[in-house]
Amino acid sequence: MNPYQSLPVRSFWRPAVAEPDPLDIEDVWTPKFALGQDDPVVTAGSCFAAQIGRALLDSGMNWLDAEPAPPGLTREQRRDRGYGAFSFRTGNIYTPAVLRQWLSWALGHAQPPEEAWPDGDRWVDPYRPAIEPGGFASPDEMLRAREVTLAAVRTAVTTASCLVFTMGLTEAWRDAVDGTVHPTCPGTVRGTFDAERYTLHNFTFAEAHRDMTEAIAMARLVNPGLRILLTVSPQPLTATATGGHALPANGYTKSVLRAVAGQLALEDPDVDYFPSYELITGPVFGGRFFGPNQRTVTPEGVDFVMRHFVAGLQRRPTQPQSARDTAARPGDAACEDTVLDYYSPR
Amino acid sequence: MPPVRTQSLTTTAPARFLLLGDSHAGPIGRAAQKAGIPFQGGPIGAGREFTDSFFTTRDTPGRRDVVFQSGEAEEHYRRFLKELGVDALPGLGIPLVATFGFCAHFVALRELWDLYRDRSGAVPPGFLATPLFGAIVRAAVRDALAFYEHSVGLGLRVLAVMPPQRVPGQSDPAVFMAAQEHIRLAVTELGVEVVDLRRRTTGPDGLQRPELCEADDEIHGNLAFGRIILAELLDRGL
To answer: How many angstroms from the chain centroid is the CA of residue B83?
Structure first.
């Protein structure tokens, strides 16, 4: 008897991944902790995370919108102004560093810079440049709006049972003047690029791990019971500023983030990893969940991921299904993987 | 370390809507309370109370207010208005969200339709498509329709929320579905915005998904259902 003989079907690539219809793959995620239907869940992160909140809501979970839109806005206005995408109106948070930065501001560990970027006769928040497409009337108005968002971050973090954070990128732009990290390169979405001031930084595993660890620690200072569910956005990066090719640059980014999520989940019983990245990018899916640009995840892909998410949350404790005892196929003995496959159910 | 700023979302804000209805209004109100969404109102009676004549109107200095026949309903209603700082429905400056008239499970009580059953015991689909059936349903909820007509006539923005898709054992599922559709059309014709979330809340069988059902009964939606309705109301600008 070796350890592989008592493993369930889900542990073996061939019967669990290669052989089923990809849409029938199941039992992908076993949650480390229970999440009740009415437990408040907070979402933040990259573009892909923007689709999780509403999907959670529709599946009967309690997605917490800590910064609801003011009354009187149309659906389009709400979307354009950044309401309803995440639990607070920070806009996309692509990197662990920016999550740590928002939490440090919201929870009083640091003061955010008060600089506002001019945009014609309007003003833009450098740390959420896509919020308010029409800009703010004044720097004061911008700061007041940011205070509302910081209050919402505080409310969300202190009341949530679980924070779902989707990491998206390792490349970010650092500000030499105040040491902050920008969510996007200044001068792209808004603002003006200043090569003397803004420098590219491609976060390493150690840096991303440190930033996530610090972000979690800050959140738990005000909510010791907070559980963290990490995911990695399956959406490839739009562009890399490293000078390299976008394909390996994306490989670096996702590998680092995936490793950080895995490491944190190993280290902390109240940190879990949900494999949305694998459920979209896995080779068996053949890119079927990407749109024509080979980047955007289709609604079908989001539905597929959310079905697995909800199924995981609602599952009963898994009873391991013993592998069946079968004979090796001729010629397979040379490969260790094939030996492992020998113990898989057929 | 600088002190944590104390601004929060609990600052008193004006109510976004007035909620009036039967027991199906409960999950909506509970969801709004838990989400910290300012509103006034809630259930003011059971669904069957809002099929028969349940209100009258009376002159007010502005236009005609409604007066609920049930003392309890009227008491709730007046309290809600007082909290909103208005004397009567015509003075309401925020949208009205209601669930009146959508008690299709009550309209679909099996005993009410025995006269129309065929030999197999079913109410024939052909009958459910007749003008007679539509007329019976509209008559059954005529006072709810009158309430909506009056409210819209006051210039209010009125939203009516469709009920959870649950058919209790004493009701006929086919009659429930057909009656509900007639009610939806009738309410829509009056200029009311119908909040129809069936696509998001039902399974392949057209019935409420289990995770959105109140566990203790066979009629109501649960808090999760209320959250979905609330999100839709906010999406509509409330």
So the answer is: 21
